[in-house]
Amino acid sequence: MAKFRGAIVVDTERCKGCGVCITACPCGVIELAKEVNGKGYNYAFMANPEACIGCASCGITCPDGVIKVYKKAL
Amino acid sequence: MAEITLQDIIQPENLVYEKSKLLTEKPFHYCPGCGHGTVHRIIAEVLEELGVDDRTIGVSPVGCAVMAYDYFDVDFVEAAHGRAPACATGIKRVWPDKVVFSYQGDGDLAAIGTCETIHTCNRGENITMIFVNNGIYGMTGGQMAPTTLVGMKTATTPYGRMPQWPDGTPNNGFPLQITQLIAQLPGTRYVTRQAVFSAAAVRNAKKAIKKAFQNQIENKNGVNFVEIVSNCNSNWKMSAVDANKWLQDNMLPVYPLGDLKDNFELIKK
Fold first, then answer.
1. Which of A71, B3, B28, B154 has the fewest CB atoms within 10 Å distance of its CB?
2. Is the pLDDT of residue B269 over 80?
């Protein structure tokens, strides 16, 4: 079992749905939503919250800096 | 063991990453997936970590990053097209205690401002130059830049960049590796080429930018030059993810990553 659990909070109104975070995530946590935000972009969200280890790869590759990453040791 | 919920994890004490405080709340105007946003973010993080935000002056270019002054919470000057290194020279000479950096794209630094770039590097001004290379003129609609790859289709080379006609007469020329060029000049202290296509690359780029600013803060003379190989998915006509893959397959063989010069000494590969 993973020693860390992580979580991300996406600022959905600022997300542009580029998908760079999805390829950066090593655990396949993130997907693009079917719904769109106010600008018409399919924003990123946590599709598999249990798999997140809080590595912050998504946060540091996000071109718009919309992802906040939280990490908690179990 | 009690099941851990998302509310338990999302607490202020567990925060490991968020956008730097040095970036304003204004959303970037860049296209989705553009490397400029990542480069802005890592510059802001570096300035925040070094604690020099109150004495930093940036010089923004003409190009996609023309409105960089809107996004950074530090002082900024907008230079004429290609003249950012000359402008930064003036600021640094008048205020030697300020941290001065120029931020330019490839159309600005390698085409219109080649003269200013080469002479600033040759004089060895104590500034940091950030060069974002995406191989195309992004803002004006995807025209050919000097850094465009051979065979790459742009608005002004619809059949691909052709350095020479089949009979050998000159046509579009070859991709300009300006970072190799300026590494030869005696005035440059630190010259490196990085990229922002993956988390590992972003971490390396951040280390390089941090070193480039640290050299300047420690008053080590010489230009600190960081090239970032970036994408332009809109004008390459790809999705952001495909553009990052295309960059790794096509841009990196022509613009290989790594340090070219450190402490005034060329690094032999």
1. B3
2. no
Yes or no, beta carbons of B38 and A16 under 8 Å apart: no
Going from N- to C-terminal start, the domains of chain A cover 4-67
| Rounded Cα gap, residues B183 and B265, in angstroms | 9
- Which CATH topology does A4-67 take? Alpha-Beta Plaits (3.30.70)
With beta carbons less than 8 A apart as the criterion, state whether A64 and B28 touch: yes
B154 near B235, Cβ under 8 Å?
Answer: yes
Beta strands in chain A (DSSP E): 4-10, 30-36, 42-46, 67-73
ipTM associated with this complex: 0.93
B202/A70 Cβ within 8 A: no
In chain B, domain spans = 19-266
Distances (CA, A) of B45 to A73, B51, B101, B201: 25, 10, 15, 16
> How far from each other are the two terminal CA atoms of chain B, in whole angstroms?
54
Per CATH, which fold does B19-266 belong to? Rossmann fold (3.40.50)
DSSP, collapsed to helix, strand or coil, labels residue B43 as helix
Using alpha carbons, select from A15, A24, A64 the residue that is nearest to residue A42. A15
Helices first, then strands: H and E counts in chain A = 2, 4
CB contacts of A16 in chain B (<8 Å) are 31-33
Q: Which residue has the tokens 């974002």?
A: B132
Q: Integer distance in angstroms from the first to the last C-alpha of chain A?
A: 10
Encode pLDDT of B154-190 as tens digits.
999 999 999 999 999 999 999 999 999 999 999 999 9
